[in-house]
Write a structure and sequence with these properties.
single chain; alpha/beta; two-stranded parallel ribbon; 10 strands; 21% helix
Length: 196
């Protein structure tokens, strides 16, 4: 009987190892190749496991009306209200390349429910089929958008939930539609933003 038990353990260990080496890469890779212009480079951590709490004092002198840090490395957005009593973390999509990533300080200058979308000239150069899109299910800005004082950079929702946690945007920070709706409701115009 001891021999049977040992063989069973070996079988289970072998099956686990086989699953880990064959299934994991396809489950954990950054994105399907057709979704992103960049080559898939292998296994990446799920972004949720890489979230770490931030301290607003590491980024701002004061909280102002509210503060946001968009961390492009961990793919998380950090929000603090005016007195620091409300701190929230949201998973995000981030720019698909360093060339498209703008870092530094900015602020929310406008907010819109049901935004329309016009591709930038650079986007059209990369994909000539892109055209203006009115608000609705196909719109890449999702249900809500908050405009930064950097032209063409936004914090917005997305109808394509596969983009969250990935390098998938043309420069913006994207959130699930239900999360951008929540953030939109608590974020006043004038909120300071730092993209790192």
């Amino acid at each position: 009987m001891a021999t049977h038990s040992t063989n069973r353990r070996q079988l289970l260990a072998g099956a686990s190892a086989l699953l880990a080496t064959t299934a994991a890469p396809s489950l954990l890779r950054a994105a399907p190749e057709e979704d992103v212009d960049l080559p898939v480079t292998g296994i990446v951590r799920h972004n949720v496991s890489s979230f770490s709490a931030q301290h607003w004092q590491d980024h701002f002198v004061e909280l102002g009306v509210a503060s946001i840090v968009a961390d492009t490395t961990s793919r998380a957005l950090h929000y603090w209200n005016a007195d620091g009593s409300d701190y929230r973390i949201y998973p995000t999509s981030v720019p698909m390349s360093e060339e498209l990533t703008r870092r530094g300080y900015t602020k929310i200058v406008r907010k819109r429910v049901g935004p329309d979308w016009t591709p930038t000239q650079d986007m059209v150069r990369r994909n000539p089929d892109l055209k203006y899109m009115p608000p609705g299910p196909g719109n890449p800005l999702g249900t809500h958008a908050m405009y930064l004082d950097w032209p063409a950079y936004l914090i917005h929702g997305t109808h394509d939930t596969r983009k969250i946690g990935r390098r998938s945007s043309s420069g913006c920070i994207g959130l699930y539609n239900n999360k951008i709706e929540e953030l939109f409701a608590i974020t006043p115009i004038g909120t300071q933003v730092r993209v790192i």
